[in-house]
Design brief:
The protein is an all-alpha fold. It is 84% helix and 0% strand.
């Protein structure tokens, strides 16, 4: 039992990222599915991306990486790093979905799930190494 607690404590940040990642991924799929029912899939995707990326910033900052900024300058720097890294993964998400739907004729929702798996992995690496670095 003690080894399990030690293992959980050692990987607490990653476990939190996976939990909140699952929450935002669920919201991502749900919102995309809802919007996709009455908008073109690529418009639904843009609205979903902006909404979910905003929610993810606050969840990651407050509950996963738990970063504290000493001043507004530090906070702005963190926010801009987050925006830049998420713009990068939004491009992967947006064009990856179009590629899967238009070129490979994969269902929009299945394509979205495939792209999200790739994006979640890239997002964790960018957040850990670039955005929420411990000061």
């Amino acid at each position: 039992m003690i080894k399990i607690k030690e293992l959980i404590n050692k990987h607490k940040e990653f476990i939190s990222y996976c939990f909140f990642g699952a929450v935002t991924t669920g919201l991502h799929i749900l919102l995309f599915w809802l919007l996709d029912s009455f908008l073109k899939y690529y418009i639904a995707n843009i609205i979903t991306l902006i909404t979910i990326k905003t929610i993810a910033y606050f969840l990651n900052k407050l509950f996963v990486f738990k970063t504290k900024c000493k001043n507004k300058s530090e906070l702005l720097k963190e926010v801009f790093k987050y925006i830049f890294s998420r713009l990068f993964t939004m491009i992967i998400d947006y064009f990856g979905l179009i590629l899967l739907v238009e070129v490979f004729n994969i269902n929009e929702l299945i394509g979205k799930v495939i792209v999200l798996i790739i994006v979640v992995i890239v997002n964790y690496i960018l957040c850990k190494k670039y955005v929420y670095k411990k000061r």
